[in-house]
Write a structure and sequence with these properties.
It comes from Streptomyces lunalinharesii. The chain has 334 residues and is of the alpha+beta class. It has 9 helices and 18 strands. The chain has a 6-stranded mixed beta sheet. A 4-stranded antiparallel beta sheet has the order 4-16-7-14. Helix 1 packs parallel to helix 3.
Length: 334
Amino acid sequence: MSSPPSTTLPGVELRPGTPPLLLADAHGDPARWAARHKDALRATVAAHGAVLVRGLGLHDTGAAAATFTALSAELMTETESFAPRHSYGAGVYSSSKWPQNQPMCMHHELSYALRFPRLMLFACLKAPSDGGATGVADATSVLDALPRKVVRRFERQGWLLTRSYNDEIGASVAQAFGTDDREAVARYCRANAIAFQWQPDGTLHTRQRRSAVVRHPISGRRCWFNQIAFLNEWTIAEEIREYLLDTYGADGLPFNTRYGNGDPLDQDVVELVNTVYQTHTARAPWQDGDLMVVDNIRTAHSREPFDGPRDVLVAMADPIRLSDCSPSIEVTTP
């Protein structure tokens, strides 16, 4: 594995419990600043896993989109989304529509897909009045902190994501796949090792088995890379979980996760993973105009509950395939 570039941005503040912070002066042109510092900014992310850039003045969609494009020549079109987003075109999206009083627990974006972003780009146009931080956690540190018995089972079996698409909870078929044409959805599922079945009521049920541990394609670091805890039923607030079970049944939940062999996850395992994440979370309140760049493989991210309006735009950049990250299991259709 090659080493990350050594030239990083000067002046990055490293403080325990907070993401690396850089104070920047864009002189009113954040996209120009990003283009001029692109290589150094990427090197900083390679060295630290993430960086929060403050002072750019990202106050509108156009400035954010131009800055994202300056940092990456390839912004992804999202597929297999688990929650709706608004698209601003050219790979620029709103944050996932998720109840603001509920946390989005630590996860790696699209870690259940065969093709996912290597970089996540966030632009805060409007910070909430309280809460709403995008926390980050180092995936290697999380892996090292988990009990070896737990890690070994997931390394051996992988993890299984089950989804039941409907028009009420989470992303619909059309939102997730870009079409509701059954033949097009079937072709995508077959090409991406996803088992699928159309239910009598017209809903779609899918299963996909993925690796829980990968190696970073640049550094070779072993990373806990998945959404095992975030998309599991035991992470959902109890009253919401009970409602979903009553409404859809245990096999019809909008999403759930299992061991790779199909065995259900015990509540204590899910809570353990979330506790380790919490212990390793670094956070800083958003300020209007902030930019955050996150290495999506090395670093998990979250969204904390918040009050007041919150407008954070997202781009998924530098797509890479799971097969390029030395997965611990061979991915086949379950």
